[in-house]
Design goal:
mainly alpha, three-stranded antiparallel β-sheet, disordered N terminus, disordered C terminus
Length: 376
């Protein structure tokens, strides 16, 4: 957990890389959603898995060039080998998640897709309870129930409802929740970075999706007129693949340069923007109960992240650590400078020159080493 003793320290504020990653992730995500929908609905190009495979291909080539030619970052093969199983699992989850989301957009509207995707907190709650034994407050649980209820109202007798699209959107949501948990574990390794993870997972994602493309899309694609020399579709796929590579990197950078809580708050804004733009651009038909469900889902989703962020600030206060977005003591190493000293007798056991505060839940002391030149 961010801010916990022995774990990564909370961010000291919003930096230029954080602002850049936020803007890039949100804008690229919106562009991908609408560009894909444009190809499906206006260009009659119904090959969503092929588009995702091309995107992972661009990610592999782009990350390889960035690492080995441009030297933008380093890669640790020993760290990749040590985490090979988790990286392989992440590659499969990422591939299935992006492919099913694209298939969903082919069959249902973007706004309905985003409402279903907004139920992500429900799946995250269940997964972290099962695998990480986390507990959640009444407020978070209530918001999660409202999100699910709103999503059910949004699809109830919806004119845009298609069972394939809804199921694919639900699968994509589960995969996204699983991916977030695994990404958090991988990025906690100091020897792994965004480019190395993208490079290591791109080819396995392609291999995982190739059988799906061969089974469901290849025959129609080869028979399609676009496969016989039409250049503008090839250019469109090339542009989409490049955007997908940049989007994947921006997603990793967003997690790296911000806190998980802040990234979820940004996700709230993205959902609202996409739902609104989709309804305005594509004039998607909805019943009144569907619109009410969408509003309930988005508001409950925002409330969920607000309460989650508020609870994280309380944890920082309990540990005498400044929450994200406020100045804090400069730490040379999160692991070295945030320590807990168990004190069964209740006497002080801190080192000279350190600031200490009691940890109310464990009867221990969280110690923050002061930065050079710091004055009380």
């Amino acid at each position: 957990v961010d801010g916990a003793p022995g774990g990564p320290a909370p961010p000291s504020g919003v930096s230029l890389p954080a602002i850049g990653s936020m803007a890039a992730w949100m804008s690229l995500n919106i562009i991908l959603q609408f560009y894909n929908k444009f190809l499906f609905s206006k260009q009659d190009f119904h090959f969503p898995v092929l588009i995702i495979i091309c995107g992972f291909g661009a990610t592999f080539v782009g990350s390889a060039l960035s690492i080995y030619v441009l030297r933008l970052d380093t890669i640790s093969m020993s760290a990749i080998q040590a985490r090979s199983r988790l990286l392989l699992f992440l590659a499969i989850v990422h591939g299935v998640g992006t492919a099913t989301e694209n298939i969903s957009i082919l069959h249902i509207s973007i706004s309905l897709n985003q409402v279903i995707k907004a139920t992500g907190p429900a799946f995250t709650l269940v997964l972290t309870k099962v695998f990480e034994k986390q507990t959640y407050s009444y407020a978070l649980t209530s918001c999660t129930v409202l999100v699910v209820l709103g999503a059910c109202l949004a699809v109830f007798k919806n004119p845009e409802f298609e069972i394939v699209g809804v199921i694919c959107a639900a699968i994509s949501t589960v995969m996204s929740a699983t991916q977030s948990i695994m990404m958090g574990r991988l990025l906690a390794d100091s020897e792994l970075n965004s480019l190395s993870i993208a490079f290591a997972t791109a080819l396995p994602s392609i291999i995982a999706l190739l059988p799906v493309f061969v089974a469901f899309e290849m025959k129609d694609f080869l028979a399609h007129s676009y496969a016989k020399g039409t250049s503008h579709i090839g250019l469109a796929i090339l542009i989409l693949s490049t955007i997908a590579f940049l989007y994947n990197l921006s997603h990793f950078w967003l997690i790296k340069y911000t806190s998980p809580h802040l990234s979820m708050m940004i996700g709230n804004i993205k959902v609202v923007i996409i739902v609104f733009l989709s309804m305005m651009i594509f004039h998607t038909p909805f019943l009144h109960i569907n619109l009410a469900g969408m509003v309930l889902t988005v508001l409950a989703f925002i409330a969920y992240n607000y309460f989650k962020y508020s609870e994280s600030k309380k944890r920082y206060i309990m540990l005498d650590i400044d929450p994200p977005g406020t100045p804090m003591l400069v730490a040379s190493s999160p692991i070295e400078d945030v320590r807990v000293h168990q004190d069964d007798s209740g006497s002080d056991s801190g080192e000279e020159g350190n600031t200490r505060s009691p940890h109310p839940r464990r009867g221990s002391y969280a110690t923050l080493s002061k930065a050079p030149g710091h004055k009380d």
